Amino acid sequence: MSEKPTDRRSFLKRSATELTILPLSVVAADRAAAATQGFAPADKFQPEEFWRERITPPDDGQRLGWFVDSRRCFGCHACEVSCKAENDVPLGNYIRQTIYKDVGEYPQVARLFLPMACQHCEDAPCIKACPCGALHKEAGGTVAVDYNTCCGHGTCVEVCPYGAIYLDPVAKQAVKCHNCYHRTEQGMEPACVPTCPSEALYFGDLNDPESKISKAMADAEASGEKLQQLREEKGTVPRTWFAGDGVVEIEERVPREGESYGTAAYDIFNWTASKDDENASETSEEST
């Protein structure tokens, strides 16, 4: 795995001397222009002939996906910590983030949690928008980044409906969940899965009815639980399913196009405020 051209660890070791990358000022200017012009994601897509081959997964018989049982998650953030350690994620950035929200009224209150990461969409907008051809499908349909190719343009961040991509502050390149393919190629699970103490995360081959993920999803449905996906209206055909109320209650707090996971998710105002409350507060502060 260490010789693979898409290995981020190897890339980071040589990026400073071997690659020419875009400065953050250029990326920021491009993103600001996109915001002011009101581009829809489709406006940023490259011609189909440029991405058709890259969006087609290898014909290996696998269909890798995720099942997140938010009923079991108690917000320990162990998945985030293991992800950061496994992938050298810098402070202030996240490949995976557990988003939370307090619901109910005192004294009947509860805190819900929703572990989030790349949805590894079958119709991935990030692949369609990538101007340098770095984003592509790996084994089983995993959406990954080729760090020998990524130019740090940031268009993938602009079109991701789930805020699952960020630009590395050192390499100035796109970073996202890649299903820990350096582990799965060795027969192991992504680092976050065995780290989860409540067994809320499941990863595996959806084409295999005997896989742990298939059995977990079947058990959830057998118990009367409706499995849901996030923002299906975006038409990305995500490969992540959720059980529990978390996906409905917390959806409003999940980053959208042009956004990434960040430290604001842990701010104290999130203990009580909804996203609408936050926006109203910001508007009030600006007016004063």
Largest sheet: 3 strands, mixed
CATH architecture field? 2-Layer Sandwich
Highest CATH level, the class: Alpha Beta
What is the total number of structural domains?
1
Mean pLDDT: 86
Q: Looking at the structure, what is the overall shape? A: globular
Low-confidence stretches: 11-38
Features:
Alpha-Beta Plaits; two-stranded antiparallel sheet; 9 strands; 15% strand
Question: What is this structure's SSE topology?
Answer:
Blueprint: H1 8-18, H2 24-37, H3 48-55, E1 64-69, H4 78-87, E2 97-105, E3 108-116, H5 125-129, E4 135-137, E5 143-145, H6 155-159, E6 166-167, E7 174-175, H7 181-184, H8 192-195, E8 201-205, H9 212-222, E9 240-243, H10 246-250, H11 275-287
Parallel strand pairs: 1-9
Antiparallel strand pairs: 1-8, 2-3, 4-5, 6-7
Structure description:
The chain is of the alpha+beta class and 288 residues long. It has one domain: Alpha-Beta Plaits (2-Layer Sandwich), CATH 3.30.70.20. 31% of the residues lie in helices and 15% in strands. It has 11 helices and 9 strands. A 3-stranded mixed beta sheet has the order 8-1-9. A two-stranded antiparallel sheet has the order 2-3. Strands 4-5 form a two-stranded antiparallel ribbon. A hairpin with a 6-residue loop joins β6 and β7 (174-175). The model is unreliable at 11-38 (pLDDT under 50).
In short:
The protein has a single domain (8-287), classed as Alpha-Beta Plaits.
